Amino acid sequence: DRWWASWIDAFDEGSSLNHGWNPPAILLSKTVAGVRPVEPGWTTFEVLPQESFLTSLKVDVPTIKGHVRVQIQKTKKEYTLSLNVPANTKAVVGIPKVPFEKLDAVYANGKAVWRNNEPAGDQKIECMGDKDGFIQFKVGVGNWRFVARGLLPLKTVKVPAHIQREEIPLDSRSWTATASVPDGSFGFTDQKIPIDVSANNALDGDYWTGWRDMTSLQHPGQWFQVDLKELRTFNKIVLDNTWALWDSPNRYTVTISSNGNAWSAPLAQGPGHLGITKITFPCQSARYIRVTQTGSDPKYHWSIYEFSVFNTEPN
C-alpha cells in the first residue's frame, strides 16, 4: 500500500510508499499467536492463539520484562504449545478448542493438567477452566511445553493460491511519452518543493515519479500518449498511480496508431480503478498508444506514475 492519507477522501501530498512497517509483525504476535499483556508492564500476559489453518508458527515478542517466545506445532493427534515465561511475570496460556474434533487431555511439561473435561494432576498449575473457547491455565516463570491430545482434522480453510504465469512488461527504456498539456511541476508539501511531473516519468520504472496534469482537474479530452519507437505487439496496459491514489482516470478510452496521425477506434473503454487500472484488449501491433480521458472529476487531477505495456499471449 503506497498511500497513507487519512480517510477524508483527499490526496495527502506527504504520502509514503512504505507504510506497512509494523502491522504484519503485530498481527502475527498479538492476534495469531495471541501474545498480549494483561497487566501494565507485562506483569501478566496471555497466550491465546488463533492460528486458523496454520499448522506451525514461531514468534519472539520482546517485552520490558524480557523476550516471550512461543512455538506451536499441530499434527492430526497433538497440539503442542511451547512457551518461556520471563522473570517477574505470569502467563495465562490457552489451548484453543476450535482446532479439535475431540480433545482428550492436556499435559504441561509431561504431567496431565486436564482430562475428561476437568482439571487433573499437577496442582502447581492453576487451571482456569474452559473460558472463551480455550482451556486456560496460569503459569509462572520458566519454560513450559503444553501438549493437547485428541483429534485435529487439520482441514484448511485457506484457498490454495492460483499460480499464474508471470507477466513481464515490455522494455520501456527507449520509449517517450507526451500528453495533452506541456510538462510541468507541482509544489510538494507546505514548503512547495517543486516536483517534476513530466510525461516521461511514467516510463522510468520508478513508482515514486510520475506524470500529472496540473493545469486543470480531470475533464474529457485530456490524453496521455506513448511512443514505443517501433511496431510492438501487446494486449494489456497498466496505469499505476497508487502514489496519488485518487488521481485514477474517471473514465478512459484506449486507441492506437502506427504513425501517430491516424488513430484506431477505441480498443477499450471504461472507468478507472483506485490506484491501479488494468486494461486488456485483443492483441494489437502498433507504435503509439494513447489513453484519453472521457470523464471528469470535481476534485482531482489525473496522474500516471507508471505506464506499463504487456503481451500476455503465450509465445
Please characterize this protein's 3D structure.
- By secondary structure, this protein is mainly beta.
- It has one helix and 22 strands.
- The chain has one helix at 23-32; strands at residues 35-37, 44-47, 56-63, 66-74, 78-85, 90-96, 102-108, 111-115, 118-119, 126-131, 134-139, 142-151, 176-179, 185-188, 193-196, 211-212, 223-240, 251-257, 268-271, 276-293, 303-304, 306-310.
- A seven-stranded antiparallel beta sheet has the order 3-4-5-12-7-8-9, with no helix packed on it. Strands 13, 17, 18, 19, 20 and 22 form a six-stranded antiparallel beta sheet that branches. A five-stranded mixed beta sheet has the order 1-2-6-11-10.
- Strand 7 (102-108) and strand 8 form a beta hairpin.
- The longest helix has 10 residues, at 23-32.
- It is elongated, with a radius of gyration of 29 Å.
- The relative contact order is 0.13.
- Mean pLDDT is 88; it is low at 1-14.
Oligomer: single chain
Beta-strand residue percentage: over 45%
Give the count of helical stretches.
Answer: 1
Rounded to an integer in angstroms, the radius of gyration calculated over CA atoms is 29 Å
Going across the biggest sheet, name each strand in turn.
3-4-5-12-7-8-9
Give the termini distance in whole angstroms.
Answer: 33 Å
Label the overall shape: elongated
The total beta strand count reads: 22
Task: Report the average pLDDT across residues.
Answer: 88
Order of helices and strands: HEEEEEEEEEEEEEEEEEEEEEE
Instruction: Indicate the low-confidence ranges by residue numbers.
Output: 1-14
Mind describing the biggest β-sheet? 7 strands, antiparallel
Structural class: mainly beta
Helix share bin: under 10%
